[in-house]
Design brief:
By secondary structure, this protein is an alpha/beta fold. It contains nine helices and ten strands.
């Protein structure tokens, strides 16, 4: 028998409720990409789901407002005789962010995004990724810089997937990218953040938004990225390959919010070889001890 609302646990209620993009805390700066403000700092992908309905449910549960789609793999209207992603994720509700997954050179990436602009009625916000290796899907940063320059000159707002090299990230920002998207670890690996020190350097020197892209495997990875000071997190495989994609999407949304709040609140310092009791030592029974 289905439980009544009064009988449901808090966890069950949360599990059935789509995440809502939270209002920015009064002390927080707005999350702005290419001049547009967004409430949700979680971006999600649309690949690897079992079907369109599972895709729709996961995206809706995440509360994301920016949804990325691989132009080479997802029908955005290229095939008039097949179901379109836009039928379940309408551009009137979401910012559709076309990406160049599967491109291994600058020319094909540029060509793919020009096609996407036509399919999406002139939309210019795009996610650029130029891959350098078919096995690891590690980015070719030289080709990425070349493609980014050409796209920006043609009026695109480019969010660039890149390595965690702070010098490359700085150059992408200098040429005018709307966001820099360093990997946490390899695409689809679920290994989480493997080099937080490089990410810290990128974040400390960034003027454009920094969004961790690739390698996020579970909610705690997203929380860590946000605690480091990232402006947002993008994930796809972590949702699509979860046992319950929509539930994982909600978990990611909550983790991103919690991580951001922790970053704004400020972490207590780490102390080696020094205990510091939370209760006051003054007035303790039997003296303060040694």
């Amino acid at each position: 028998m289905k439980p009544t609302a009064a009988q449901k646990t808090i966890a069950e209620t949360v599990a059935e409720t789509p995440a809502q993009p939270p209002s920015q805390p009064s002390s927080d700066s707005p999350f702005v990409i290419a001049g547009r403000e967004y409430r949700s700092r979680l971006l999600v992908g649309t690949g690897k789901y079992r079907d369109m309905e599972e895709t729709r449910a996961a995206v809706e549960a995440s509360g994301a407002e920016i949804v990325t789609a691989a132009v080479r793999r997802v029908n955005l209207g290229q095939d008039k005789n097949a179901p379109s992603l836009l039928s379940v994720l309408p551009p009137s509700r979401y910012t559709i962010l076309p990406n160049t997954a599967g491109c291994f050179d600058a020319a094909s990436a540029v060509r793919t995004l020009k096609l996407a602009r036509e399919l999406l009625d002139g939309a210019s916000l795009v996610k650029l990724e130029v891959l350098g290796d078919a096995k690891t899907l590690f980015p070719d940063v030289v080709a990425t810089l070349s493609a980014a320059r050409e796209l920006i000159a043609d009026g695109f707002s480019v969010m660039a997937y890149t390595s965690d090299d702070p010098i490359v990230a700085r150059e992408l920002e200098n040429i005018g990218c709307a966001a820099v998207m360093p990997l946490a670890s390899l695409i689809g690996s679920g290994m989480g953040i493997l080099n937080e020190y490089n990410l810290r350097i990128i974040i400390e020197n960034a003027r454009a938004p920094v969004i961790v892209d690739a390698g996020v495997g579970t909610a705690s990875d997203a929380a860590v990225a946000m605690e480091l000071g990232c402006d947002g997190v993008l994930c796809n495989t972590a949702l699509a390959e979860a046992r319950e994609p929509a539930r994982m999407a909600r978990a990611m949304a909550m983790a991103v919010c919690a991580g951001r709040e922790a970053y704004l609140a400020g972490r207590m310092p780490r102390r080696e070889y020094r205990a510091d009791p939370s209760s006051p030592k003054e007035g303790a029974l039997g003296g303060a001890g040694r």
